[in-house]
Design brief:
The chain is mainly α. It has 18 helices and seven strands. The structure holds acetyl coenzyme *A (ACO).
Length: 424
C-alpha cells in the first residue's frame, strides 16, 4: 500500500500505511509530531486508532460484529458465557477439557473475603450499585497485592471473573436490605448469579431455565465491543501499569455514564415517562429532534453502527421470547416497538443513521427478569468484563504499548504577569 502524503505549509511529508486483516486502512502517524511539529486533532477520537487489536471486529456500515472471528449471531446461538470469556481472553474456543477446567476455576473462586462485607455495610441504602461495584472491584487490589506480577495474572483474571457476580449480587442485596446469599458451587455461572440475586433464606429458590438462558444471551451480547469508552479507559489506565483490578474499576466508572452503559437504565426511565404521559411518542420524538430541548432518545444512535446494531436485532427477538415464556405483558415493549417503527421512517433519524442500539431492548428483558432498573448497568458490566480483561491483557502483552498520553491544542491565555491579590 502507498504511503500517505501530507502537505503542511508547503512541505510534503510521508507516513506509512498498513491494513488490518479485514482490509481496514491505518495511517501510522506515530512520527507526525516529531516530523511536522503538528498534532492530529480528533475530539472524541472518532478517527483515531489507539491500538491494533485481534479481539473484536466491527463493521458499522454492514452491522457486523465478530468475537475472535466468530459472528455474534453464531456465538449468541451456540455458546455459554463462560466459553465466550475463554474465547475473548485466550483467543480460541476452548476444547472440552479446557472449558471444564476454566469453569471449575470460575466456580471455586467466587467467595469474597468476609471482611469485605463491612465495606458493603458502610454504603448508604440509596447508594447506586455501580458506585458499590466499582469500589469493590478496586478494593480487590488490597486483598490480592502483587496483582501485576506475571505469575499472578491468570489467577487474578479468574478471581475477578468469579467474584464480580458475588460483588454485584451483594450490592443488590445491600440496596434492598436483605441478607447476602452466598455463591453455590453446583450452579452454572449465570444460575449462580441469579440465585445470589433472588434467593432468600426463608424458602428454596430454583433459577428458571428461561432466566438462565436470557442472562447467558445478554452477557454474551455485551462481552466485547472493541475500543469503546470504557474499554479505552481500561487500556488507558492499564497503560500506566496500574493493576488489573484498578484498570477494570476505572472501566466500570466509564461504563456508568448515560451516553454509554448507563443508557439501558435511561431507556426504561424514558419509556416509563412516555407511558405516564399517555403514550404520546411523537412529542418525545419532536423533543429529541429539537436541539434546544437537551433531550435525546436513549437507546438510539451509535458511534460505530450506522445501519443497524446486530445485538439490538437479536435482543428485539429475544424480548418477545423471554416475555412470552415468563408470561409478562409489559406495555413498555409495545411503546418501544412503536417508537422504533416511527423513528425508522422519520427523516431526522434516517439522515443521521440513528437506529436502536443494544441498550434499547436489553432494559425491557432485564425488567421482565425482575432485575431492578438501577442494576441494569451492573449487568452490562458483568457482561463486558471478559472484553475488558482481554483488551487489558492484549495491551499488556503488546510491545508497542506506551503510557497513553494524548496531546492538546492550547487555546487559553498567552503569557501574562501574575497580579497580586491586593492589586486586583
Ligand atoms: N436522539 C436524538 N438525536 C441524536 C441521538 C439520539 N439518541 N443520537 C445522536 N443524535 C444526533 C445528534 O444530535 C447529532 O445531530 P446533528 O448532526 O444535527 O448535530 C447527530 O445525531 C450525531 O450525533 P453525535 O452525538 O455526534 O454522535 P456520537 O457518535 O458522538 O454519539 C451516541 C453516539 C453517544 C451513542 C449518541 O447517539 C447518543 O447520545 N445516544 C443516546 C445514548 C445511548 O443510547 N447510548 C448508548 C450507546 S451504545 C452503548 O454504549 C452500549
Amino acid at each position: 500500500m502507498d504511503n500517505a502524503k501530507l502537505i503542511l505549509n508547503g512541505q510534503e511529508y510521508e507516513f506509512p500505511t498498513f491494513a488490518g486483516s479485514e482490509g481496514e486502512v491505518g495511517i501510522d502517524f506515530a512520527a507526525l509530531r516529531s516530523q511536522t511539529k503538528a498534532i492530529s486533532y480528533d475530539p472524541g477520537y472518532g478517527n483515531t486508532g489507539s491500538c491494533s487489536s485481534a479481539i473484536t471486529f466491527i463493521n458499522g456500515e454492514k452491522g457486523i460484529l465478530r468475537y475472535r472471528g466468530y459472528p455474534i449471531e453464531q456465538v449468541a446461538e451456540n455458546a455459554s458465557f463462560v466459553e465466550v470469556c475463554y474465547l475473548l481472553i485466550y483467543g480460541d474456543l476452548p476444547n472440552r477439557e479446557q472449558l471444564e477446567s476454566f469453569q471449575h476455576d470460575l466456580t471455586y473462586h467466587t467467595m469474597i473475603h468476609e471482611d469485605m462485607k463491612k465495606f458493603f455495610e458502610g454504603f448508604p441504602p440509596s447508594a447506586h450499585p455501580m458506585a458499590i461495584l466499582a469500589s469493590m472491584v478496586i478494593s480487590l487490589s488490597a486483598y490480592y497485592p502483587g496483582a501485576n506480577d506475571p505469575e499472578n495474572i491468570d489467577l487474578n483474571i479468574v478471581r475477578l471473573l468469579a467474584k464480580i457476580k458475588t460483588l454485584a449480587a451483594f450490592a443488590y442485596k445491600k440496596s434492598i436490605g436483605q441478607p447476602y446469599v452466598y455463591p453455590r458451587n453446583d450452579l452454572s455461572y449465570t444460575a449462580d448469579f441469579m440465585h445470589m440475586m433472588f434467593a432468600v433464606p426463608a424458602e428454596p429458590y430454583q433459577v428458571p431455565d428461561v432466566l438462565e438462558r436470557a442472562l447467558n444471551l445478554l452477557l454474551i451480547l455485551h462481552a466485547d465491543h472493541e475500543q469503546n469508552c470504557s474499554t479505552s479507559t481500561v487500556r488507558m489506565v492499564g497503560s500506566s501499569q496500574a493493576d488489573l483490578f484498578a484498570s477494570i474499576g476505572a472501566g466500570i466508572c466509564a461504563l456508568w455514564g448515560p451516553l454509554h452503559g448507563g443508557a439501558n437504565q435511561q431507556v426504561i426511565q424514558m419509556l416509563e415517562m412516555i407511558q405516564a404521559d399517555g403514550g404520546d411518542y411523537q412529542k418525545y420524538i419532536n423533543m429529541a429532534k429539537d436541539k434546544d430541548s437537551g433531550f435525546r432518545l436513549f437507546g438510539f444512535g451509535h458511534r460505530v453502527y450506522k445501519n443497524f446494531d446486530p445485538r439490538a436485532r437479536i435482543l428485539k427477538q429475544s424480548a418477545d421470547e423471554v416475555l412470552g415464556a415468563l408470561g409478562v405483558k409489559d406495555p413498555l415493549l409495545a411503546i418501544a416497538k412503536n417508537l422504533e417503527e416511527i423513528t425508522l421512517k422519520d427523516e431526522y433519524f434516517v439522515e443521521r443513521k440513528l437506529y436502536p442500539n443494544v441498550d434499547f431492548y436489553s432494559g425491557i428483558i432485564y425488567r421482565a427478569m425482575g432485575i431492578p432498573t438501577d442494576m441494569f448497568t451492573v449487568l452490562f458490566a458483568l457482561g463486558r468484563l471478559p472484553g475488558w480483561i482481554a483488551q487489558w491483557k492484549e495491551m499488556r502483552d503488546d510491545p508497542k504499548t506506551r503510557i497513553n498520553r494524548p496531546r492538546q491544542i492550547y487555546t487559553g491565555a498567552t503569557e501574562r504577569s501574575f497580579v497580586p491579590l491586593n492589586k486586583r
